[in-house]
Amino acid sequence: MESRNLKQRGRHSPGSPDMLPFKADDVAGEHSHGAKYTVDTLDADGEGASSKTYGAYPIVSTVQRDNGGTGNNDKSTTDFSAVSLAAGIQGIMRSQDLVTVMVLTVLSLMTRLYRIGRSNRILWDESHFSSTYAPKYLNHTFYHDVHPPLAKMLVALAQVVAGFNGSDLKQSNKYPENVNYTMMRVQIAMYGVALVPLAYLTCLQLRLSRPMAILAASFVLFDNAICVMSRFVLLDAQLLFFTALTLFSAATFQNVNKYAEPFSHRWWAWLSMTGFSLGCVMSSKWVGLFCVILVGIVTAEDLFRKFCDRIPWEDYTMHWLA
């Protein structure tokens, strides 16, 4: 036999005895506003009661929370947010989203890497970043440029992996035969490849349906400008990748912050990932400042909502410090 209690989110401290009883039919309705509830189970003799607390994920059943979203014994729908919160990366690997992510990644590889080494010409802004700026890091030559250094250092890293010696290519319009320009372009293109699966996973964290998330990822997959920029040794692919990583990390953290226990290992991990990706996007190009502003606005709104929910001052101060 089971008896359920509902604890209103944000109105009581974790140990508060002020609990509101409700029927099993009320669970679905309470899911819509992010409540938490406990399930108390008695054994056959009516003794040995045990309880388990669940975060009330929208339209996610108990079975799906426990098994990572596979829904073997339940026909209800689920979403990636609930899966990721309930079982982390293991939940993703066991869910139907893994197949979709793999298909999108393969398609992204095809569009970004197909005949990427066809031309040995130094094309477009490769004359700046691949021929001039990045080799200076390899030659330990000081120079000043308007952009922050991270994206150019990643280009220099791609050149090191490709076996480039850092010679100045400024006077040439073609890569020499001893320069593995294809390997350089492939490494930079991988940042563009990652944009497509990240778009899908981010949309799921924003609680879009799977068909809409696939549609959004398809927009990124077949966008001609994004595809072209990913195929050359430029800074844009790195910038877009870190921007997408920031949005995914921030959206995941907001779900963990809303539906899971605050200050847990998962909470700190996604907060740290958000900060790390913000640092990377700001270190790639100054336009990344707009991404920092976006996350800052969301953070300010979250702190204001916590203030309105009247959470304990100790917890509220910890949220500000974090």
Annotate the secondary structure layout.
Elements: E1 2-7, E2 20-21, H1 27-31, E3 36-41, E4 50-55, H2 62-67, H3 80-94, H4 97-113, H5 126-138, H6 150-161, H7 181-193, H8 195-205, H9 210-221, H10 224-229, H11 236-259, H12 265-284, H13 289-308, H14 313-321
Antiparallel strand pairs: 1-2, 1-3, 3-4
Helix pairs in contact: 4-7, 4-8, 4-9, 5-6, 6-7, 7-11, 8-9, 8-11, 11-12
EC number: 2.4.1.109
Protein name: Protein O-mannosyltransferase 2
Keywords: Glycosyltransferase, Transferase
Walk me through what this model shows.
Strand 3 (36-41) and strand 4 (50-55) form a beta hairpin. 34% of the residues are buried. This protein has a four-stranded antiparallel β-sheet, with no helix packed on it. Residues 1-37 and 53-86 have low confidence and may be disordered. It is α+β, with helices and mostly antiparallel strands and 322 residues long. The chain has helices at 27-31, 62-67, 80-94, 97-113, 126-138, 150-161, 181-193, 195-205, 210-221, 224-229, 236-259, 265-284, 289-308, 313-321, and strands spanning 2-7, 20-21, 36-41, 50-55. It starts with a strand and ends with a helix. It is 57% helix and 6% strand. Helix 4 (97-113) packs antiparallel against helix 7 (181-193). It has 14 helices and four strands.
